[in-house]
Write a structure and sequence with these properties.
two-stranded antiparallel sheet; ATP-dependent peptidase activity; Ribsml_uS5_D2-typ_fold_subgr
């Protein structure tokens, strides 16, 4: 025996599965990572009590100003990100919602990812040292460079490492500081030939840079549009494609001569 439901009752009952599905969608884990501005570190100074750059085999100089490498902080690969998290992050300028596979290699364990990031950092440091010594024509000299930055992985500090080595060894080439005494921040990969590459997360890194006192930000030229999207007030963008570009721009900014490129 069956009884007939009134229309309001039928509508109410049919809505229950929809509500259940929506609730499931809101709280179900999604393949995304939520990122925010991370720490910055002055490569000309110390990090956690240890010098970031240590050089032997050549005289070094005292430096003024800062060269701050920048990072983003992202939810770990084993963190569940829900639709609610995605929506919340989507409408905040200090958050970015990124496909998890674009931040972490797909299918790797947390330990494998950490090893991968550590290896990328090591390769970046080697390339930065080679690029700096080649730029200074010290590649055939017995100059040893040690780079140490705790709890940071990936290749995006390459450009700043290279500039830090150059500033400690040669400054601007005329007795002054490459920074001109400013707090300069930036990001970008580098290879041994001095080519600068894009890294991602630039809009968040500019926020971290300004938060920590930077007034100038070196950005890979290919990422100018991303850097301008949420650019904090008081931060000047300088696009670069090579190490020579970066050094020339900083020297021109310091002495007021020559072209300082802009996005």
């Amino acid at each position: 025996m069956f009884s007939r439901l009134s229309r309001p009752q039928a509508v109410a009952l049919s809505a229950l599965p929809v509500v259940a599905l929506l609730a499931t969608a809101v709280f179900a884990p999604l393949p995304f990572t939520v990122a925010q501005p991370g720490m910055t570190a002055n490569v000309l100074g110390a990090n956690r009590g240890a010098p970031v750059i240590t050089i032997s085999g050549a005289p070094t100089r005292s430096t003024a100003g800062q060269l701050r490498m920048t990072t983003i902080e992202a939810t770990s690969p084993d963190t569940d990100v829900s639709l609610a998290d995605v929506i919340h992050g989507w409408f905040r300028t200090d958050r970015a919602v990124l496909p998890r596979d674009s931040v972490y290699p797909s299918g790797n364990s947390l330990k494998e990812i950490e090893r991968h990031n550590s290896e990328q950092m090591r390769q970046s440091q080697d390339a930065a040292t080679q690029a700096a010594l080649k730029y200074l024509r010290l590649g055939d000299k017995k100059v040893t460079v040690s780079l140490k930055l705790a709890d940071v992985g990936g290749p995006s500090a390459g450009l700043l490492f290279t500039l830090g080595i150059i500033d400690k060894l040669d400054g601007d080439g005329s007795g002054g500081d490459l920074t001109g005494g400013r707090t300069v921040a930036g990001t970008g990969t580098i290879d041994a030939a001095g080519k600068v590459g894009p890294v991602g997360g630039v809009a968040l890194k500019t926020q971290a840079a300004r938060r920590d006192g930077a007034t100038v930000f070196l950005v890979p030229r290919a990422e100018c549009a991303d850097a301008k999207a949420e650019l904090p007030k008081g931060l000047r963008l300088i696009p670069v494609t090579t190490l020579n570009n970066a050094v020339d721009a900083l020297v021109a900014l310091e002495n007021g001569k020559g072209l300082v490129p802009s996005c």
